[in-house]
Amino acid sequence: MHAFATQPLADFGPIIAPQLNVTTDSLYSNFWCGINEHGYYERTADYEPIVRWKKRGCFEVPMVHSAYLIDMRHAGSRKLSFDVPPPEYQGPFDDIIQFAFSAKYSGMTMHILNTEYFGHIMIPLDGKNTLEDEVEQFLHIKLEMLVYEPPLRKSPFIHVPERKPDKLGFDQVYVINLVRRPERRIKMIATLKELGIDAYFLDAVDGKSLNESYLKQLGVKQLPGYADPYHGRDMTMGEIGCFLSHYLIWKDIKENGYKRIIVFEDDVRFEPFFRQKLDKVVYEADYVVEDWDLIYIGRKRLYREPEPEVEGTSMLIWPNYSYWTLSYMITYNGVQKLLDADPLSKMIPVDEFIPIMFDRHPESEWKAYFFPRNLIGMSVEPLLVYPTHYTGEPDYISDTEDSTLINDDEESEETKLPTAGLNVESPKVEL
Q: Which residues span the domain enclosing 61?
Protein backbone atom coordinates (compact mmCIF):
# COMPACT_ATOMS: atom_id res chain seq x y z
CA MET A 1 0.00 0.00 0.00
CA HIS A 2 2.87 2.32 -0.80
CA ALA A 3 0.56 4.75 -2.62
CA PHE A 4 -0.45 6.06 0.79
CA ALA A 5 3.16 6.48 1.83
CA THR A 6 4.14 8.62 -1.16
CA GLN A 7 1.24 11.10 -1.04
CA PRO A 8 -0.29 13.05 1.86
CA LEU A 9 -3.62 11.66 3.01
CA ALA A 10 -5.24 15.07 2.40
CA ASP A 11 -4.56 14.63 -1.32
CA PHE A 12 -7.03 11.72 -1.37
CA GLY A 13 -9.78 12.79 1.04
CA PRO A 14 -10.65 12.54 4.72
CA ILE A 15 -11.71 8.85 4.44
CA ILE A 16 -9.83 6.72 1.92
CA ALA A 17 -9.99 2.96 1.36
CA PRO A 18 -7.76 0.68 -0.73
CA GLN A 19 -9.88 -1.43 -3.08
CA LEU A 20 -10.00 -5.04 -1.90
CA ASN A 21 -11.63 -7.81 -3.96
CA VAL A 22 -12.64 -11.37 -3.15
CA THR A 23 -11.04 -12.50 -6.43
CA THR A 24 -10.07 -10.78 -9.65
CA ASP A 25 -13.30 -12.14 -11.19
CA SER A 26 -15.67 -11.34 -8.32
CA LEU A 27 -17.70 -8.13 -8.16
CA TYR A 28 -17.71 -8.07 -4.36
CA SER A 29 -15.46 -5.39 -2.88
CA ASN A 30 -15.21 -3.10 0.13
CA PHE A 31 -17.12 -0.11 -1.29
CA TRP A 32 -20.44 0.91 -2.81
CA CYS A 33 -20.87 3.30 -5.70
CA GLY A 34 -24.54 3.85 -4.99
CA ILE A 35 -26.73 4.06 -1.91
CA ASN A 36 -30.38 5.12 -1.75
CA GLU A 37 -32.00 7.48 0.73
CA HIS A 38 -32.92 4.58 2.99
CA GLY A 39 -29.37 3.29 3.17
CA TYR A 40 -29.67 0.33 0.84
CA TYR A 41 -27.28 -0.64 -1.94
CA GLU A 42 -27.80 0.60 -5.48
CA ARG A 43 -25.81 -0.66 -8.47
CA THR A 44 -24.47 2.11 -10.68
CA ALA A 45 -22.77 2.19 -14.07
CA ASP A 46 -19.46 3.15 -12.44
CA TYR A 47 -19.18 0.18 -10.10
CA GLU A 48 -18.05 -2.61 -12.42
CA PRO A 49 -15.42 -0.55 -14.32
CA ILE A 50 -13.88 0.48 -10.99
CA VAL A 51 -14.00 -2.91 -9.29
CA ARG A 52 -12.47 -4.61 -12.37
CA TRP A 53 -9.76 -1.91 -12.68
CA LYS A 54 -11.01 -0.72 -16.07
CA LYS A 55 -11.12 2.76 -14.51
CA ARG A 56 -8.23 3.51 -12.18
CA GLY A 57 -7.81 6.37 -9.77
CA CYS A 58 -9.28 7.78 -6.60
CA PHE A 59 -13.09 7.99 -6.72
CA GLU A 60 -15.58 9.54 -4.32
CA VAL A 61 -18.13 6.95 -3.22
CA PRO A 62 -20.94 6.90 -0.63
CA MET A 63 -19.66 3.87 1.27
CA VAL A 64 -16.36 2.17 2.13
CA HIS A 65 -15.93 -0.51 4.75
CA SER A 66 -13.61 -3.11 6.28
CA ALA A 67 -10.31 -1.27 5.61
CA TYR A 68 -9.79 2.48 5.36
CA LEU A 69 -7.83 5.42 6.68
CA ILE A 70 -9.41 8.43 8.44
CA ASP A 71 -7.94 11.88 8.71
CA MET A 72 -8.61 12.47 12.40
CA ARG A 73 -7.58 16.13 12.03
CA HIS A 74 -10.84 16.75 10.16
CA ALA A 75 -13.39 18.40 12.45
CA GLY A 76 -16.11 16.04 11.28
CA SER A 77 -14.24 13.01 12.63
CA ARG A 78 -15.75 13.71 16.07
CA LYS A 79 -19.22 12.95 14.69
CA LEU A 80 -18.34 9.57 13.17
CA SER A 81 -20.17 6.66 14.74
CA PHE A 82 -21.01 3.02 14.06
CA ASP A 83 -23.87 2.76 16.56
CA VAL A 84 -25.28 6.26 17.01
CA PRO A 85 -27.13 7.25 13.84
CA PRO A 86 -27.13 10.88 12.69
CA PRO A 87 -30.29 13.02 13.15
CA GLU A 88 -33.32 11.99 11.07
CA TYR A 89 -31.61 8.75 10.01
CA GLN A 90 -34.21 6.20 8.87
CA GLY A 91 -31.96 3.51 7.46
CA PRO A 92 -31.35 -0.04 8.70
CA PHE A 93 -29.64 -0.93 11.96
CA ASP A 94 -26.32 -1.69 10.31
CA ASP A 95 -22.89 -0.53 11.46
CA ILE A 96 -21.27 0.21 8.08
CA ILE A 97 -24.36 1.98 6.72
CA GLN A 98 -24.72 4.10 9.85
CA PHE A 99 -21.01 4.93 9.64
CA ALA A 100 -21.41 6.05 6.01
CA PHE A 101 -24.36 8.28 6.90
CA SER A 102 -22.54 9.73 9.89
CA ALA A 103 -19.61 10.58 7.59
CA LYS A 104 -21.98 12.32 5.19
CA TYR A 105 -23.63 14.21 8.07
CA SER A 106 -20.23 15.33 9.38
CA GLY A 107 -19.13 16.65 5.99
CA MET A 108 -16.50 13.92 5.40
CA THR A 109 -16.32 12.36 1.96
CA MET A 110 -15.36 8.74 1.31
CA HIS A 111 -13.04 7.62 -1.47
CA ILE A 112 -11.93 4.33 -3.00
CA LEU A 113 -8.40 3.99 -4.41
CA ASN A 114 -7.69 1.33 -7.05
CA THR A 115 -4.47 2.56 -8.62
CA GLU A 116 -2.86 -0.82 -7.93
CA TYR A 117 -3.57 -4.24 -6.48
CA PHE A 118 -3.87 -3.92 -2.69
CA GLY A 119 -5.08 -7.36 -1.63
CA HIS A 120 -8.16 -9.46 -0.96
CA ILE A 121 -11.15 -9.36 1.32
CA MET A 122 -13.30 -12.25 2.51
CA ILE A 123 -17.07 -12.32 1.91
CA PRO A 124 -18.83 -11.81 5.25
CA LEU A 125 -20.63 -14.95 6.39
CA ASP A 126 -24.01 -15.10 8.12
CA GLY A 127 -25.61 -17.26 10.78
CA LYS A 128 -26.12 -20.15 8.39
CA ASN A 129 -22.39 -20.52 7.81
CA THR A 130 -20.04 -22.66 9.88
CA LEU A 131 -16.44 -22.40 10.99
CA GLU A 132 -15.58 -24.82 8.17
CA ASP A 133 -17.04 -22.30 5.71
CA GLU A 134 -14.75 -19.64 7.15
CA VAL A 135 -11.77 -21.99 6.75
CA GLU A 136 -12.66 -22.59 3.09
CA GLN A 137 -12.99 -18.86 2.45
CA PHE A 138 -9.58 -18.24 3.96
CA LEU A 139 -8.13 -21.13 1.92
CA HIS A 140 -9.41 -19.42 -1.22
CA ILE A 141 -7.66 -16.20 -0.25
CA LYS A 142 -4.41 -18.18 0.12
CA LEU A 143 -4.90 -19.77 -3.30
CA GLU A 144 -5.49 -16.38 -4.91
CA MET A 145 -2.30 -15.05 -3.32
CA LEU A 146 -0.37 -17.99 -4.77
CA VAL A 147 -1.37 -16.84 -8.27
CA TYR A 148 0.58 -13.61 -7.83
CA GLU A 149 3.15 -14.34 -5.13
CA PRO A 150 5.78 -16.99 -4.36
CA PRO A 151 4.77 -19.77 -1.92
CA LEU A 152 3.55 -18.26 1.33
CA ARG A 153 5.68 -18.43 4.47
CA LYS A 154 4.35 -20.19 7.54
CA SER A 155 4.30 -18.52 10.91
CA PRO A 156 6.55 -20.29 13.43
CA PHE A 157 3.98 -19.49 16.13
CA ILE A 158 0.93 -21.17 14.58
CA HIS A 159 0.56 -24.85 13.75
CA VAL A 160 -1.84 -25.65 10.94
CA PRO A 161 -2.13 -29.39 10.20
CA GLU A 162 -1.62 -30.22 6.55
CA ARG A 163 -4.48 -31.83 4.67
CA LYS A 164 -3.74 -35.43 3.71
CA PRO A 165 -3.63 -35.47 -0.09
CA ASP A 166 -5.91 -37.67 -2.17
CA LYS A 167 -6.96 -38.01 -5.81
CA LEU A 168 -10.41 -36.41 -5.41
CA GLY A 169 -12.04 -39.82 -5.88
CA PHE A 170 -10.49 -40.31 -9.34
CA ASP A 171 -8.09 -43.00 -10.48
CA GLN A 172 -5.55 -40.35 -11.43
CA VAL A 173 -5.11 -36.58 -11.38
CA TYR A 174 -2.87 -35.11 -14.10
CA VAL A 175 -1.26 -31.69 -14.34
CA ILE A 176 0.23 -30.70 -17.71
CA ASN A 177 3.33 -28.51 -17.37
CA LEU A 178 6.12 -27.45 -19.70
CA VAL A 179 9.56 -28.10 -18.23
CA ARG A 180 10.63 -24.59 -19.25
CA ARG A 181 7.81 -23.12 -17.15
CA PRO A 182 9.08 -24.09 -13.68
CA GLU A 183 7.38 -21.08 -12.06
CA ARG A 184 3.99 -22.51 -13.03
CA ARG A 185 4.93 -25.91 -11.63
CA ILE A 186 6.01 -24.34 -8.34
CA LYS A 187 2.71 -22.47 -8.02
CA MET A 188 0.64 -25.53 -8.92
CA ILE A 189 2.53 -27.70 -6.43
CA ALA A 190 1.82 -25.17 -3.68
CA THR A 191 -1.82 -24.78 -4.76
CA LEU A 192 -2.51 -28.51 -4.91
CA LYS A 193 -0.86 -28.98 -1.53
CA GLU A 194 -3.24 -26.44 -0.02
CA LEU A 195 -6.21 -28.20 -1.64
CA GLY A 196 -4.97 -31.63 -0.56
CA ILE A 197 -4.76 -33.00 -4.11
CA ASP A 198 -2.33 -35.78 -5.00
CA ALA A 199 -1.37 -35.36 -8.68
CA TYR A 200 1.07 -36.53 -11.33
CA PHE A 201 2.84 -33.83 -13.31
CA LEU A 202 3.16 -34.67 -16.99
CA ASP A 203 6.09 -33.03 -18.79
CA ALA A 204 4.23 -31.44 -21.69
CA VAL A 205 5.36 -31.96 -25.27
CA ASP A 206 7.13 -28.71 -26.07
CA GLY A 207 6.29 -27.19 -29.45
CA LYS A 208 9.73 -25.60 -29.53
CA SER A 209 11.24 -29.12 -29.63
CA LEU A 210 9.17 -30.31 -32.59
CA ASN A 211 9.92 -30.17 -36.31
CA GLU A 212 8.37 -31.51 -39.52
CA SER A 213 10.53 -34.61 -39.84
CA TYR A 214 9.74 -35.68 -36.30
CA LEU A 215 6.00 -35.14 -36.81
CA LYS A 216 6.14 -37.37 -39.90
CA GLN A 217 7.57 -40.15 -37.73
CA LEU A 218 4.56 -39.82 -35.46
CA GLY A 219 2.10 -39.76 -38.34
CA VAL A 220 0.93 -36.24 -37.48
CA LYS A 221 -0.88 -34.54 -40.35
CA GLN A 222 -2.92 -31.38 -40.20
CA LEU A 223 -6.60 -31.77 -41.08
CA PRO A 224 -7.08 -30.91 -44.79
CA GLY A 225 -8.58 -27.46 -45.14
CA TYR A 226 -7.90 -26.45 -41.54
CA ALA A 227 -7.29 -22.76 -40.91
CA ASP A 228 -7.39 -21.04 -37.54
CA PRO A 229 -10.87 -19.44 -37.24
CA TYR A 230 -9.44 -16.09 -36.09
CA HIS A 231 -6.11 -15.80 -37.88
CA GLY A 232 -6.58 -17.98 -40.97
CA ARG A 233 -3.26 -19.77 -40.36
CA ASP A 234 -2.07 -23.36 -40.06
CA MET A 235 -1.60 -24.98 -36.68
CA THR A 236 1.36 -23.81 -34.63
CA MET A 237 3.95 -26.18 -33.18
CA GLY A 238 2.73 -25.07 -29.76
CA GLU A 239 -0.81 -26.22 -30.57
CA ILE A 240 0.56 -29.54 -31.77
CA GLY A 241 2.59 -29.93 -28.59
CA CYS A 242 -0.53 -29.16 -26.55
CA PHE A 243 -2.55 -31.78 -28.44
CA LEU A 244 0.18 -34.40 -28.02
CA SER A 245 0.34 -33.68 -24.27
CA HIS A 246 -3.36 -34.46 -23.87
CA TYR A 247 -2.97 -37.42 -26.22
CA LEU A 248 -0.26 -38.82 -23.94
CA ILE A 249 -2.69 -38.70 -21.06
CA TRP A 250 -5.43 -40.43 -23.06
CA LYS A 251 -2.98 -43.20 -24.01
CA ASP A 252 -1.92 -43.55 -20.38
CA ILE A 253 -5.54 -43.87 -19.24
CA LYS A 254 -6.16 -46.67 -21.71
CA GLU A 255 -2.95 -48.53 -20.93
CA ASN A 256 -3.59 -48.38 -17.18
CA GLY A 257 -7.30 -49.11 -17.43
CA TYR A 258 -8.28 -46.04 -15.43
CA LYS A 259 -12.06 -45.68 -15.19
CA ARG A 260 -11.98 -41.91 -14.74
CA ILE A 261 -9.41 -39.17 -14.33
CA ILE A 262 -9.23 -35.40 -14.09
CA VAL A 263 -6.83 -33.13 -16.00
CA PHE A 264 -5.56 -29.67 -15.06
CA GLU A 265 -3.41 -27.41 -17.16
CA ASP A 266 -0.83 -25.48 -15.14
CA ASP A 267 -2.28 -21.97 -15.53
CA VAL A 268 -5.54 -22.35 -13.61
CA ARG A 269 -7.05 -20.77 -10.52
CA PHE A 270 -9.66 -22.51 -8.40
CA GLU A 271 -13.08 -21.27 -7.32
CA PRO A 272 -14.04 -21.15 -3.62
CA PHE A 273 -15.25 -24.47 -2.17
CA PHE A 274 -13.71 -26.29 -5.14
CA ARG A 275 -13.61 -29.75 -3.59
CA GLN A 276 -17.17 -29.59 -2.27
CA LYS A 277 -18.54 -28.38 -5.60
CA LEU A 278 -16.59 -31.03 -7.51
CA ASP A 279 -18.03 -33.75 -5.26
CA LYS A 280 -21.54 -32.54 -6.11
CA VAL A 281 -20.75 -32.51 -9.84
CA VAL A 282 -19.46 -36.09 -9.73
CA TYR A 283 -22.52 -37.21 -7.77
CA GLU A 284 -24.90 -35.63 -10.27
CA ALA A 285 -22.98 -37.03 -13.24
CA ASP A 286 -22.94 -40.56 -11.83
CA TYR A 287 -26.47 -40.81 -10.53
CA VAL A 288 -28.39 -38.64 -12.97
CA VAL A 289 -26.55 -38.91 -16.31
CA GLU A 290 -24.75 -42.23 -15.68
CA ASP A 291 -23.09 -42.73 -19.11
CA TRP A 292 -21.02 -39.56 -19.40
CA ASP A 293 -17.69 -39.34 -21.24
CA LEU A 294 -16.23 -35.87 -20.63
CA ILE A 295 -17.13 -32.93 -18.37
CA TYR A 296 -15.47 -29.53 -18.68
CA ILE A 297 -14.38 -28.08 -15.35
CA GLY A 298 -12.89 -25.01 -17.04
CA ARG A 299 -13.44 -23.73 -20.57
CA LYS A 300 -14.19 -20.63 -22.66
CA ARG A 301 -17.72 -20.14 -23.96
CA LEU A 302 -17.71 -18.73 -27.48
CA TYR A 303 -21.39 -18.01 -28.07
CA ARG A 304 -24.04 -16.23 -26.03
CA GLU A 305 -26.77 -18.70 -26.92
CA PRO A 306 -28.24 -20.41 -23.87
CA GLU A 307 -26.86 -23.83 -23.07
CA PRO A 308 -29.55 -26.25 -21.84
CA GLU A 309 -29.32 -27.63 -18.34
CA VAL A 310 -28.86 -31.36 -17.91
CA GLU A 311 -32.26 -32.42 -16.63
CA GLY A 312 -32.26 -33.42 -12.99
CA THR A 313 -28.97 -31.65 -12.17
CA SER A 314 -28.14 -28.26 -10.69
CA MET A 315 -24.52 -27.90 -11.88
CA LEU A 316 -24.36 -29.47 -15.35
CA ILE A 317 -25.24 -28.16 -18.80
CA TRP A 318 -24.94 -29.39 -22.39
CA PRO A 319 -22.20 -27.09 -23.78
CA ASN A 320 -22.07 -25.42 -27.13
CA TYR A 321 -18.86 -24.87 -29.08
CA SER A 322 -16.14 -24.06 -26.53
CA TYR A 323 -12.45 -23.24 -26.37
CA TRP A 324 -9.71 -24.12 -23.90
CA THR A 325 -8.91 -27.35 -22.08
CA LEU A 326 -8.12 -25.79 -18.71
CA SER A 327 -9.56 -28.75 -16.86
CA TYR A 328 -11.86 -31.67 -17.60
CA MET A 329 -12.99 -35.01 -16.24
CA ILE A 330 -12.93 -37.95 -18.64
CA THR A 331 -13.81 -41.64 -18.48
CA TYR A 332 -12.20 -44.69 -20.04
CA ASN A 333 -15.04 -44.90 -22.59
CA GLY A 334 -14.58 -41.24 -23.45
CA VAL A 335 -10.87 -41.74 -24.02
CA GLN A 336 -11.58 -44.74 -26.25
CA LYS A 337 -13.88 -42.63 -28.42
CA LEU A 338 -11.22 -39.92 -28.80
CA LEU A 339 -8.47 -42.41 -29.67
CA ASP A 340 -10.68 -44.33 -32.11
CA ALA A 341 -11.09 -41.10 -34.09
CA ASP A 342 -7.39 -41.39 -35.11
CA PRO A 343 -6.80 -37.68 -34.36
CA LEU A 344 -3.06 -37.59 -35.14
CA SER A 345 -3.66 -38.28 -38.83
CA LYS A 346 -6.05 -35.31 -39.17
CA MET A 347 -4.97 -33.04 -36.36
CA ILE A 348 -6.61 -29.82 -35.28
CA PRO A 349 -6.13 -28.01 -31.95
CA VAL A 350 -7.39 -30.09 -29.03
CA ASP A 351 -9.99 -27.50 -28.05
CA GLU A 352 -11.43 -27.72 -31.59
CA PHE A 353 -11.29 -31.52 -31.62
CA ILE A 354 -13.28 -32.13 -28.45
CA PRO A 355 -16.35 -30.04 -29.50
CA ILE A 356 -16.33 -31.88 -32.83
CA MET A 357 -16.46 -35.20 -30.99
CA PHE A 358 -19.59 -34.17 -29.06
CA ASP A 359 -21.00 -32.68 -32.29
CA ARG A 360 -21.19 -29.05 -31.20
CA HIS A 361 -18.75 -27.56 -33.71
CA PRO A 362 -19.90 -25.02 -36.35
CA GLU A 363 -17.48 -26.19 -39.10
CA SER A 364 -19.35 -28.98 -40.91
CA GLU A 365 -16.43 -29.65 -43.29
CA TRP A 366 -14.12 -30.39 -40.36
CA LYS A 367 -16.72 -32.53 -38.64
CA ALA A 368 -17.09 -34.72 -41.72
CA TYR A 369 -13.62 -36.20 -41.09
CA PHE A 370 -14.69 -37.60 -37.71
CA PHE A 371 -17.33 -40.28 -37.23
CA PRO A 372 -19.09 -41.23 -35.07
CA ARG A 373 -19.27 -37.95 -33.15
CA ASN A 374 -20.90 -39.52 -30.12
CA LEU A 375 -18.83 -38.25 -27.20
CA ILE A 376 -21.19 -37.47 -24.30
CA GLY A 377 -19.78 -34.12 -23.28
CA MET A 378 -21.07 -31.80 -20.58
CA SER A 379 -19.82 -28.80 -18.65
CA VAL A 380 -19.98 -27.61 -15.10
CA GLU A 381 -21.94 -24.37 -14.72
CA PRO A 382 -20.73 -22.21 -13.12
CA LEU A 383 -17.19 -23.29 -13.87
CA LEU A 384 -14.85 -24.45 -11.09
CA VAL A 385 -11.53 -23.27 -12.56
CA TYR A 386 -10.51 -20.21 -14.57
CA PRO A 387 -7.24 -19.11 -16.20
CA THR A 388 -4.75 -17.29 -14.00
CA HIS A 389 -4.32 -14.62 -16.69
CA TYR A 390 -6.32 -13.54 -19.71
CA THR A 391 -5.03 -12.29 -23.07
CA GLY A 392 -3.53 -8.83 -22.75
CA GLU A 393 -3.10 -8.92 -18.97
CA PRO A 394 0.35 -8.50 -17.41
CA ASP A 395 2.29 -11.81 -17.21
CA TYR A 396 -0.01 -13.46 -19.78
CA ILE A 397 1.91 -16.11 -21.77
CA SER A 398 0.67 -18.31 -24.60
CA ASP A 399 2.93 -21.21 -25.57
CA THR A 400 0.47 -22.32 -28.24
CA GLU A 401 0.07 -19.01 -30.08
CA ASP A 402 3.66 -17.80 -29.79
CA SER A 403 5.36 -20.50 -31.84
CA THR A 404 6.16 -21.44 -35.43
CA LEU A 405 3.64 -22.92 -37.85
CA ILE A 406 3.46 -26.58 -38.79
CA ASN A 407 4.78 -26.00 -42.31
CA ASP A 408 7.96 -24.24 -41.17
CA ASP A 409 10.32 -27.13 -41.92
CA GLU A 410 13.38 -25.85 -40.10
CA GLU A 411 15.27 -28.32 -37.88
CA SER A 412 15.39 -27.10 -34.29
CA GLU A 413 18.58 -27.43 -32.30
CA GLU A 414 16.37 -28.38 -29.34
CA THR A 415 14.87 -31.41 -31.12
CA LYS A 416 15.86 -34.12 -28.66
CA LEU A 417 12.46 -35.64 -28.01
CA PRO A 418 12.63 -39.39 -28.80
CA THR A 419 9.79 -41.20 -30.53
CA ALA A 420 9.39 -43.31 -27.40
CA GLY A 421 8.28 -40.18 -25.63
CA LEU A 422 4.83 -40.66 -27.14
CA ASN A 423 4.67 -44.34 -26.26
CA VAL A 424 5.36 -43.79 -22.60
CA GLU A 425 3.57 -46.33 -20.40
CA SER A 426 2.91 -43.82 -17.66
CA PRO A 427 4.14 -40.27 -16.95
CA LYS A 428 5.72 -41.20 -13.61
CA VAL A 429 6.53 -37.73 -12.39
CA GLU A 430 4.89 -37.80 -9.00
CA LEU A 431 3.98 -34.80 -6.89
A: 2-113
